[in-house]
Amino acid sequence: RLLILLFVCASVRIHLSFLSGNAFVVSLALADLVVALYPYPLVLTAIFHDGWIAGYIHCQISGFLMGLSVIGSIFNITGIAINRYCYICHSLKYDRLFSSSNTMCYVVLVWALTILAIVPNWFVESLQYDPRVYSCTFAQSVSSLYTIAVVVVHFVLPISIVTYCYLRIWILVIQVRRRVKPDSRPKVKPHDLRNFLTMFVVFVLFAVCWAPLNLIGLAVALDSGLSRAVPEWLFTASYFMAYFNSCLNAVVYGALNHNFRKEYKRIV
């Protein structure tokens, strides 16, 4: 996760039109980095001692930062999708919409919404230690209505927005390739498509990795009796699959983005 942040910061020599998009990528890397600085060491301690020994306050802080990382990631992925949608589908308005100052405001807004979304956990007391995953995390069975709201606001709604943005981009790309008159084609450059593809793969991996855990939470919220019926191995696998997602981002960047590959080699 730290490497992701270093590689993003190191690859500043890319096309100027992607600087505003990179602000969201750096923000996404910071969201990934949050859990590595505080919650994960406490999780390792819980694993070694087969239980939580850090106390209630650290449990609440750890759970809060876990949620901050998760929600921050999906909100930043949504910001990236909107940014790419405006850049490719509304290129004439892009420079005005995503000027340097506006982009910084958008990033601040993303984190403000992230904090606003995580604060209610303290009021419903849903941040609890779960021995199945050795972590203080969101307890899906505390409140059915709140769990449904969490799944909708933190997963379904952002995924829907991102899906819409990328579908519109794909439609435009297909239309461009089918046009007969080259002079009338919108200017969609190859490197724009490669960067779009990279972020699209990041989104797909996020959706695939986080879908099982969210579906389990939604099922438990709709029928509380399912909380006992869900096998422990299934919940544990879905939980670690979700957090493994952040580790995949660096691999995706290195595999699909020439600038990242170049900086990987330079740093190594």
UniProtKB/TrEMBL annotation:
A Gene Ontology biological process term: rhythmic process
Organism: Tetraodon nigroviridis
Protein role: High affinity receptor for melatonin. The activity of this receptor is mediated by pertussis toxin sensitive G proteins that inhibits adenylate cyclase activity.
Coiled coil: none
Name of the protein described by the UniProt record: Melatonin receptor type 1A like
Domain G-protein coupled receptors family 1 profile: 1-253
Residue spans crossing the bilayer: 55-82, 103-124, 144-174, 195-213, 233-256
InterPro entries (alphabetical): GPCR_Rhodpsn, GPCR_Rhodpsn_7TM, Melatonin_rcpt
UniProt keyword annotations, A-Z: Biological rhythms, Cell membrane, Disulfide bond, G-protein coupled receptor, Membrane, Receptor, Transducer, Transmembrane, Transmembrane helix
GO CC list: plasma membrane
Highest taxon listed in the record's lineage: Eukaryota
One GO MF term attached to the UniProt entry: melatonin receptor activity
